[in-house]
Amino acid sequence: MRWIYLSPHLDDAVLSAGGLMYEQTRSGIRVEIWTLMSGVPSGGEASPFAQLLHQQWGFSSAEEAVGSRREEDRKAAQIVGATARHFDFLDCIYRRDENGKWLYDQISLPPQGLDRRLPRQMADAISSRLEPDDVLVCQLSVGSHVDHVLVRQAAELLGHPLLYDVDIPYLFYKPEELAPKSVGMEKTVYAVTESGLQSWQEAVLAYTSQLPALGDAMKTPELAAASLRSYWAEQGGIPLWRVS
């Protein structure tokens, strides 16, 4: 049996549940992080939106950005004892329509054009690697980032029992989305020790390129660590949801 956390991007799963991963791996449970939108775009050209983000992250190209972010993700996964697996679907900032037009100039648009096919394509890729006794965790898509929405849609096509974690740090900025995103679900809080919290904080800080772009709650290592501690203390651990 494995616990598999579906992560839209190269940071989402650890941001949301890194402390729980630490507790699980410490107790002997196999934990894997499957990042769906971690492919390297071909051609070298980047949209204005992607170029802006690359500048914020400190990279000069998509290849450098994805390569460096994959390395950050491997380091973060190692800190919490998990195995990182990277799929080749593209981040929304790199996707085009059938005519070559960039699909997104912001992250909260609904799925556009050919992207409506992505959930089935991702579900097929996940299904081919999934075992019947795997425990699968998907993000609720709080914040409505298009990639989080698409990955949730993919997970819900699988016909496999699902648990849901909540999207950190989006929950900090759009808490009003939690209730509608978890309607009909039951919440369970999983205990995370002080050591688990510290491992979670350390793992999140491994995403050095991303912290400045994650909003006011996470923009420095000190703020990120404090935000995670506050959330952990408020919740009494890390919550997961399941359909009741």
Fold and architecture overview:
There is one protein chain. The chain has 244 residues and is an alpha/beta fold. The chain has one domain (2-243): 3-Layer(aba) Sandwich (Rossmann fold), CATH 3.40.50.10320. It contains nine helices and seven strands. The strands form two sheets. It has a five-stranded parallel beta sheet, with helices on both faces. Strands 6-7 form a two-stranded antiparallel sheet. Strand 4, helix 5 (146-156) and strand 5 (162-165) form a beta-alpha-beta unit. Helix 1 (12-26) runs antiparallel to helix 8 (194-205) and helix 3 runs antiparallel to helix 8 (194-205). The longest helix is centred in the N-terminal third of the chain and has 19 residues, at 62-80. It is globular and about 50 Å long. It starts with a strand and ends with a strand.
Describe what is shown at a glance.
This protein is an alpha/beta fold. It contains nine helices and seven strands, in the order βαβααβαβαβααβααβ. It has one domain: LmbE-like (Rossmann fold).
